[in-house]
């Protein structure tokens, strides 16, 4: 009989075979961080009983006797049933389980060894495990699968794989001509397709959207006034261009944090420095300007820490971090890099940019309890003390350029790991670290730590090339696996963290809208330029002050969703319904909800209805008059494959039913054609209307809404 132990249980509780030692990073630290560090961690102001458990030298002074659990006060406190002595106290919502207490006892008995937190350890290039697979990723994945007596899934069929890689790399479904190679499929053809997609201008559009989420990009200031930023799109277009030309990620970083400080910066580099101009900005007449400035700079610190280092740096804004080794002094030393910046609009293009103030520079202080009016000790610009130090700056005071170079130095243990994890998560739906904005003590450890480090090392070794990394991932057998449900992993690995199959993912909001426009033939492919305003229902303006809305003219409204104007007080409802972020903060991971409102939107939102109407006419124009041929064409346009016999039969039955309803409804039923009613001959009107209804059904199928 096979003993089945869920992978999630193995990860979270450290349930180990008897012969294995307890490992601090894997088994002990997550429990301490979750249930002990709030009162016995780095924050000296909140520390109880002067006991610190995150540093071994402090813990063994009084609480822990290595090798002797029965003599350890720590063990006594977590095992006693006395309410006045037990830890965590009965009032705590985070109580230890019996398994966790036993794990602590074993750890103490084995010597109570500590380890540096995995994310702060220098990146080591792991040795690739032996494997018959050519791609190193597969060797790492298969080794972990073998440990759990699992095998990888078979490769997805060519049509599914082509559709998957199109959606992942360009955010658009393949056309009929793109599918022509599927009948004579080979690894070589797939590799050539990947190269073509990476070279496509649409690649920059798709991957720019991921970065703009993290950059909290919007076309307005936010807050009550929500003033328009008419040139914010120039930063968005810089991101698209930088990704399309595969600007190395280290340079991509430097130009956004300190493009204005580079020698003789180009117009593009000045535009890139607008990364931190994307945040919301309070411009109300009665606002305290110094408080607003303080909050804006704090956002820059928090965003930089979250996006590039995967750390919750913002937790140290008011007090030393409760879980990670980030002091309040660290926070304001980091803040000092931004304290003498000024917002400006680049003269040539009016693009929002940053500039360094050289005269009358401000002194930076620790702001006690995060209060901008309470000044503590002076601080100078400095990197986080728990991480490797910066190289000595050319100037007496380190600059933002020094900060940027520090972030992308080979010695930095976080930036490459975090960046690789972001990219991986977009191709599998979840990162190797499932908490992409928390690589700290309370975040989840990596599911495949050696693979993460190998990829981080390879990323730097390949010149920080985003395209090379993505190609490596999408040409792996791991990526190409079928996403079909597997009963054998339901108990052992219900979240598929071991990756014995691909993950099935609901399309992002923008990609869903772009897909219906693409298959209907409505999509306008123009890349870049000012944002456009889609049609909106009047009741949207019942909330907020931006009521002067006029939809963009002509076919502008059919551009990709990336270019929809993002006004913080008037977010496009369709996008928010499908979990697009609100641009309030850096979004490193989108949620994927499943709500009735989404189904109602797919059936009734104007853009989906109009796309169905246009698609019906497209089918009428491009297919023979026989109903089965038309339905096959319609099916192929939407789902990129031929219908199975039973699917075609059900589709024909539905079409026949709809045609009868249209005939019975008379002229009134033809209004379902919308603006296309007059473009259809009377003899084709009933057929066209029935095809509209059929198209709407197909566009609402799970197979269309999800990437398999």
**Strand arrangement, major sheet:** 1-2
| Computed structural class | mainly alpha
What share of residues is helical? 40-55%
Distance between the termini: 34 Å
Number of spatially distinct domains: 5
Radius of gyration, CA atoms, in whole angstroms: 28 Å
Map the helices and strands:
Blueprint: H1 7-13, H2 24-35, H3 37-40, H4 56-62, H5 73-79, H6 98-109, H7 136-147, H8 158-170, H9 187-199, H10 201-214, H11 233-244, H12 249-258, H13 267-272, H14 289-309, H15 328-335, E1 341-345, E2 352-356, E3 364-367, E4 375-379, H16 400-407, H17 415-428, H18 449-461, H19 466-474, H20 477-480, E5 505-506, H21 509-520, H22 573-577, H23 596-604, H24 606-622, H25 627-639, H26 645-665, H27 682-699, H28 702-705, E6 706-707
Antiparallel strand pairs: 1-2, 3-4, 5-6
Structural features, described:
This protein has 708 residues and is mostly helical. The chain has 5 domains: 7-115; 136-199 and 414-505, no CATH class; 248-407, no CATH class; 506-591, no CATH class; 606-707, no CATH class. Helix content is 43%, strand content 3%. The protein contains 28 helices and 6 strands. The chain has a two-stranded antiparallel sheet.
Essential attributes:
two-stranded antiparallel ribbon, disordered N terminus, about 700 residues, 5 domains
């Amino acid at each position: 009989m096979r003993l089945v132990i869920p992978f999630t249980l193995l990860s979270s509780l450290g349930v180990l075979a008897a012969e294995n030692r307890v490992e601090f990073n894997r088994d002990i630290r997550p429990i301490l961080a979750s249930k002990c560090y709030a009162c016995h961690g780095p924050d000296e102001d909140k520390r109880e009983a002067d006991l610190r458990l995150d540093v071994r030298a402090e813990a063994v002074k009084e609480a822990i006797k290595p090798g002797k659990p029965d003599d350890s006060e720590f063990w006594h406190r977590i095992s006693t049933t006395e309410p006045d002595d037990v830890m965590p106290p009965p009032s705590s919502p985070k109580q230890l389980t019996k398994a966790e207490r036993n794990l602590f006892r074993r750890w103490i008995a084995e010597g109570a060894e500590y380890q540096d937190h995995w994310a702060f350890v220098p990146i080591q290039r792991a040795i690739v495990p032996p494997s018959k697979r050519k791609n190193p990723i597969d060797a790492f994945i298969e080794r972990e699968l073998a440990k759990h007596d699992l095998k990888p899934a078979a490769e997805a069929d060519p049509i599914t794989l082509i559709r998957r890689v199109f959606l992942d790399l360009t955010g658009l479904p393949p056309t009929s001509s793109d599918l022509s190679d599927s009948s004579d499929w080979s690894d070589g053809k797939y590799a050539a397709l990947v190269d073509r997609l990476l070279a496509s201008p649409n690649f920059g559009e798709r991957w720019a959207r991921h970065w703009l989420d993290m950059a909290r990009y919007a076309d307005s200031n936010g807050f009550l006034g929500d003033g328009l930023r008419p040139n914010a799109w120039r930063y968005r277009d810089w991101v698209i261009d930088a990704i399309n030309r595969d600007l190395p990620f280290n340079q991509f970083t430097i130009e956004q944090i300190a493009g204005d400080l580079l020698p003789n910066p180009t117009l593009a580099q000045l535009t890139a420095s607008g990364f931190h101009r994307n945040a919301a900005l309070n411009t109300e007449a009665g606002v305290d300007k110094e408080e607003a400035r303080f909050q804006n700079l704090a956002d820059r610190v928090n965003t930089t820490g979250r996006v590039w280092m995967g750390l919750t740096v913002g937790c140290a804004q008011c007090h030393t971090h409760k879980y990670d080794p980030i002091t309040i002094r660290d926070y304001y030393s980091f803040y000092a890099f931004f304290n003498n910046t000024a917002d400006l609009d680049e003269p040539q293009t009016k693009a929002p940019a940053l500039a360094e103030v050289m005269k009358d520079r401000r002194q930076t202080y620790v702001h006690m309890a995060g209060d901008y009016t309470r000044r503590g000790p002076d601080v100078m610009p400095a990197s986080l003390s728990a991480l490797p130090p910066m190289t000595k700056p050319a100037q007496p005071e380190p600059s933002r350029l020094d900060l940027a170079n520090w972030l992308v130095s080979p010695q930095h243990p976080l930036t490459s790991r975090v960046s690789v994890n972001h990219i991986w998560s977009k191709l599998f739906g979840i990162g190797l670290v499932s908490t992409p904005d928390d690589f700290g003590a309370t975040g989840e450890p990596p599911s495949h730590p050696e693979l993460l480090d190998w990829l981080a090392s390879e990323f730097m070794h390949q010149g920080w090339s985003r395209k090379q990394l993505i190609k490596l991932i999408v040409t792996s057998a791991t990526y190409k696996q079928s996403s079909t449900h597997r009963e054998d992993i339901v108990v052992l690995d219900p979240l598929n963290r071991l990756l014995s199959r691909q993950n099935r993912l609901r399309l992002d909001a923008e990609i869903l809208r772009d897909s219906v426009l693409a298959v209907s033939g409505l999509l306008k492919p123009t890349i870049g330029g000012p944002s456009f305003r889609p049609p909106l229902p009047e009741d949207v303006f019942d909330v907020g002050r931006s009521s002067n809305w006029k939809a963009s003219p002509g076919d502008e409204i059919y551009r990709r969703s990336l270019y929809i104007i993002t006004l913080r007080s008037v977010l496009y409802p369709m996008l928010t319904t499908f979990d697009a972020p609100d641009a309030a903060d850096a979004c490193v991971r989108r949620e994927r909800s499943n709500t009735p409102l989404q189904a109602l939107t797919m059936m009734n939102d104007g853009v989906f209805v109009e796309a169905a109407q246009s698609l019906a006419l497209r089918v009428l124009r491009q297919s023979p008059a026989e109903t089965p041929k038309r339905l096959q064409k319609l099916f192929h346009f939407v789902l990129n494959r031929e219908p199975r016999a039973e699917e075609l039969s059900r589709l024909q039955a539905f079409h026949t039913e709809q045609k009868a309803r249209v005939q019975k409804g008379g002229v009134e039923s033809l209004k379902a054609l919308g603006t296309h009613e007059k473009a259809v001959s009377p003899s084709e009107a009933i057929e066209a209307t029935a095809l509209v209804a059929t198209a709407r059904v197909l566009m609402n199928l799970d197979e269309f809404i999800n990437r398999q």
